[in-house]
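In full, the data.
>
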Amino acid sequence: MRWWAKGLIGVGVIAVAGYGVIKIGGPDLIYPKVDGVNYGPSSISFTDTDPGETIGGTVTLGRAVDETGVDMYMVHWGLEVGEPGVQDDAGNGDHDGDCKGFRDTGHVVMSMVDQGGTPITMEIPKGTEVPEDAVYFVAHTIYGGIHNLAKCIQIPIENVVETGS
């Protein structure tokens, strides 16, 4: 077999394997589950105080019921899953939880477990642009460096835009 044919076959095998990891194996192969008893944030809210097309304001998280082993709390941009709209999204996230779009997005804000107060408050700077496909704020805990994707909570991003009268 010629060298270029072997190269094409190798690239094809890698592409198929990568697709399988993401689509078939899901997040378990990339983001392992947290072992043992674990908890996520108990609540999430966001108040947008930026009057323009961008957002800014306070994200408030309720602390986990038991913080034993929790390193930090993290909030991500979350993508829609399933059909357009949020009606079919519940329970269709990573690890069969409600975590939306974690693999595709960066984090927005985070707080170490010993910071942030009770409840935990974190500020998103005014002028923050929401990524094009983001529709949720998704919050979860991190245990020993492992993202606790089975215990996420989310809320739709509501951008308050003031219009002139």
In short: The chain has two helices and eight strands. The beta strands are 43-48, 55-62, 70-79, 107-112, 120-128, 134-143, 146-147, 153-156. The chain has two domains: 1-30, 35-156. The CA atoms of residues 48 and 57 lie 5 Å apart.
